[in-house]
Design a protein that fits this description.
Layout (H helix, E strand, L loop, with lengths): L1 E3 L5 E6 L6 E6 L2 E6 L4 E7 L22 E6 L2 E6 L4 E6 L4 E6 L12 E6 L2 E9 L2 E6 L20 E3 L5 E8 L3 E8 H7 L5 E2 L12 E3 L4 E5 L6 H6 L10 E5 L17 E3 L15 E5 L4 E5 L5 E5 L4 E5 L24 E3 L4 E6 L3 E6 L7
Antiparallel strand pairs: 1-5, 2-3, 3-4, 4-5, 6-7, 7-8, 8-9, 10-11, 11-12, 13-14, 14-15, 15-16, 17-18, 18-19, 19-20, 21-22, 22-23, 23-24, 25-26, 26-27
Length: about 375
């Protein structure tokens, strides 16, 4: 069955990584598939557990508030989440089968629902949040849970980032006070060592989880850093240490399930760059992606467009009119970020895209200068 979406609210979009110019859409409680430039879409599956507004989960923080939906696509699999809610679903788009999932509600209104896909030994695995401080790994095909009971970590998971070869993944979350803390995990170590096998990343520890972040290899990732605005701390630093560097590159060490790291992961290098504006708290907002073909970072913002940046921090191209819908912020409940109004990036197909109500998915290629 096909639907005309020209007069309907499309809540989330994601590229089909198998087929160029084809996209997954979420609207009216359904997962749909459409070609770029077409407002008609094929219905793939009904997903009734994904709500448009929050319901009472005990503390009332999300009751009646609009919930942002997010899509995560990997081959025939599509994950749908209430970003700041408690429900998710995994859809096999080849069969239309839907597996409903949920996470326990403990500050879900400020923590993105954690979902990511891994490839391991010929199997597609789903990393999904089941508690505020717990991720589980499931076989996407069978639903078999590959992780078991574990020591509880005082850590709120949020957005996940998976390395290109699935060897590592990051949780862009926070710990109670609250302060942002990125944790890095080895896939193999996590299957038996769980959260205790991860290593915390050394940053300034502010209030900015879900910060811009991306892998640039199976072991190396980059974070966009906030600018330290603590005047008392600044007085203790020498002039050289006060210099602000926006990008920090990290190499994940060998991690095992037996040894819990007792130190922070320090950056291997800091790079000067100024593509992310800082807000009144010195925080950076937006997205980072990596374009392997050009070797450039794709830095996306809500008001300053898209920048293509070398790993040395040089801007080689800019699209000033291509913007995110709004900053990806845990403080912006019900934001339309990654929704129909703003642009997103499809790394497999190297295109920027967004949903336009009257014309369907609109695409923009990366600038022609984005080549090695």
């Amino acid at each position: 069955m096909d639907l005309d979406l020209s007069s309907r609210r499309v809540r989330a979009t994601a590229p089909d990584d198998r087929t160029p110019h084809t996209y997954w859409l979420f609207a009216d409680g359904r997962l749909l598939r459409a070609r770029a430039g077409d407002t008609r879409a094929e219905v793939v599956a009904d997903v009734p557990n994904i709500r448009e507004t929050g319901s009472d989960t005990g503390d009332g923080r999300i009751t009646g508030k609009p919930l942002e939906a997010r899509l995560y696509a990997h081959g025939p699999w599509v994950g749908v989440t209430e970003r700041f809610g408690t429900n998710a679903a995994l859809i096999n788009t080849d069969t239309g089968a839907v597996r409903e999932m949920s996470r326990a509600d403990h500050h879900s209104d400020v923590s993105s629902y954690s979902v990511g896909f891994l490839e391991r030994q010929g199997r597609t695995l789903l990393v999904a949040q089941t508690e505020w401080n717990r991720l589980d790994v499931l076989d996407a095909e069978t639903g078999e849970r590959l992780t078991g009971q574990r020591e509880q970590l005082d850590y709120f998971h949020s957005l996940l980032h998976v390395s290109p070869g699935s060897r590592h993944f990051l949780s862009n979350g926070w710990a109670w006070s609250p302060v942002d803390v990125v944790y890095a995990f080895s896939t193999e170590a996590f299957l038996t060592g769980h959260e205790a096998s991860g290593i915390a990343v050394s940053t300034a520890f502010g209030y900015n989880w879900d910060r811009p972040c991306t892998f640039v290899g199976d072991r190396t990732f980059v974070l966009a850093l906030d600018e330290e605005l603590d005047e008392e701390l600044d007085e203790e630093l020498d002039e050289e240490d006060e210099e602000y560097h926006q990008l920090a590159f990290f190499d994940i060490p060998e991690l095992t399930s037996a040894d819990r790291p007792d130190h922070l992961l320090e950056p291997r290098s800091l790079v000067d760059c100024d593509v992310f504006a800082r807000n009144e708290h010195g925080e950076v907002k937006g997205e980072l992606h990596y374009d392997a073909e050009s070797g450039c970072l794709v830095a996306m913002t809500a008001g300053d467009g898209v920048h293509l940046v070398t790993l040395e921090g040089d801007v080689v191209a800019r699209l000033p009119d291509v913007n995110l819908a709004s900053p990806p912020s845990h403080g912006d409940i019900g934001s339309t970020f990654s929704g129909s109004g703003g642009w997103s990036y499809a790394s497999r197909h190297r295109v920027l895209y967004r949903w336009a109500d009257r014309s369907g998915i609109e695409e923009r290629p990366l600038p022609g200068g984005a080549r090695r």
